[in-house]
Amino acid sequence: MSFSDLGVAKWLSESLIAMKIHQPTPIQTACIPAILKGHDCIGGAKTGSGKTIAFAAPMLTDWSADPRGIFGLILTPTRELALQIAEQFAALGSNMNIKVSVIVGGEDIVTQALALQRNPHFVIATPGRLADHVLNSGEETVAGLKRVKYLVLDEADRLLSNSFSSDLERCFKVIPSSENRQTLLFTATVTDAVRALKDAPAKEGKLPVFMHEVETVDKVAIPNSLSIKYVFVPSYVKEAYLHSILSLEQYKDKTAVIFVNRTITAEVICRTLRKLEFRVASLHSQMRQTERINSLHRFKAGAARILIATDVASRGLDIPSVELVVNFDIPADPDDFIHRVGRTARAGRKGDAVSIVGEKDVERIHAIEERIVKTMELLEGVSDDRIIKESLTAVSTAKRESMMEMDKQGFGEKKRINKKKKEGKLPKSSK
User: Are 182 and 149 in contact (CB under 8 A)?
Assistant: First the structure.
């Protein structure tokens, strides 16, 4: 089976071959023909299975027959995913003079408004920033969105959660109604909210929703090649235990992603480990966009061995070389744990995941073990004696210095001001 057999345009099949993509994956084989026939589509498949091409190939095929205006809008939860999708669209359409605009936070909003006014062929956006344009940039800026033929929700389970609902609602007001566009939802986790969209009554003149879940997308949550371990620690010395884990003989040279739940934790750990001479980069929402891109590039290139990240890095991002995932903080949702540890042990390779478990995390660990149908094993080699002897003093000093620096630099101040503005708690002169 080739991409041409699925109905993909000849020029695009050639582009895929030039990119050394010869055979469609199961999600691509199932979804591309259905989308080309005009079906709305729900596609469920694990990270790394080719979901982007599953929606990009039919959209680009259709677009090339009638290249006009803003043809497709792709919404995704994080800036990094938006940039990654844009890179793939640009690469696939490079021979066809494709115009792609990325509309995400952290970039100049006026420059983005001008880009939207030029009616690029495809817009890849985060809902919050696009909603800002709808609200503030004027009718001329968003007029092109009224003729969108395709709407894609990538990582749909996250986009359909409550945290994005108001921004999505604002975005949907300026694009064609569901009966006048094709809607494509792709996700690694087919939640009840996503599944419910398939069972919604069909609109008159619309084909039924096509849904394809790649088998085992939800049944085998953790690959056999992934080792799942834990250390049980007092929560006030977690950083010292992290230092000890990263210094173990089996991990000291491995590429690692450390996941945390809060941006301030990511920043503290990054600065602390840097003072202890680890090669680290960080990725979180309070960094400027250029800093986030640089961090990812440094990590991918091997200039940084360790990436400290919030859940902006847990899904979809193409980081193929990770050998170790550390959950410094345990996520509240077991599926978030699955997405995090899915950064390693990919494509049959081995990988390790270590969770640092505090006294308040036990219930979360039990929920995760039930979800993944696997019991975590105790990580050997991290003892209290070793922590006291090798890590505690040095880590405590580095952490204290890092927090003092952050306080002097006003880390998080902009976020606090913006929050007060939204709540209307600042006087007009402060705004």
Answer: yes
Return phi, psi of residue 382, to 5°.
-105, 100
CATH number for the domain harbouring residue 350: 3.40.50.300
Sign of the C-alpha dihedral computed for residues 228, 234, 236 and 241 taken in this order: negative
Could you list the residue range(s) of the whole structural domain that residue 247 is in?
Answer: 226-414
For residues 196 and 214, give the distance between their C-alpha atoms in angstroms, rounded to a whole number.
Answer: 18
- Quick one: tokens of 45? 């498949």
pLDDT in tens, the chain (431 residues): 899 999 999 999 999 999 889 999 999 999 999 999 999 999 988 766 789 999 999 999 999 998 888 999 999 999 889 998 999 999 999 889 999 999 998 889 999 999 999 999 999 999 999 999 999 999 999 999 999 999 999 999 889 988 899 999 999 999 999 999 999 999 877 777 787 777 776 666 677 888 888 754 444 467 788 999 999 999 899 999 999 999 999 999 999 999 999 999 999 999 999 999 999 999 888 888 788 889 988 998 899 999 999 887 777 666 767 899 999 999 998 888 988 898 887 766 789 999 999 999 999 999 999 989 899 999 999 998 999 999 999 999 999 999 999 999 988 765 555 555 555 555 544 44
Give the angle 129-75-20 at the CA atoms, nearest 5°: 125
Q: Residue 226 in contact with residue 376, Cβ under 8 Å? A: no
SS3 46: coil
Q: How many domains does the chain fold into?
A: 2
Give the CA diameter of the chain: 72
Q: Give the pTM.
A: 0.73
Asked whether residue 277 falls in the same domain as residue 331, the answer is yes
Same domain, 301 and 198: no
141: which residues sit within 8 A by CB, 6+ positions away?
113, 116, 117, 133
Edge to edge, the sheet with strand 182-187 lists 100-103, 122-125, 72-75, 150-154, 182-187, 41-44, 210-213
- C-alpha neighbours within 13 Å on the C-beta side of residue 144: 22
Sign of CA dihedral 304, 306, 309, 315: positive
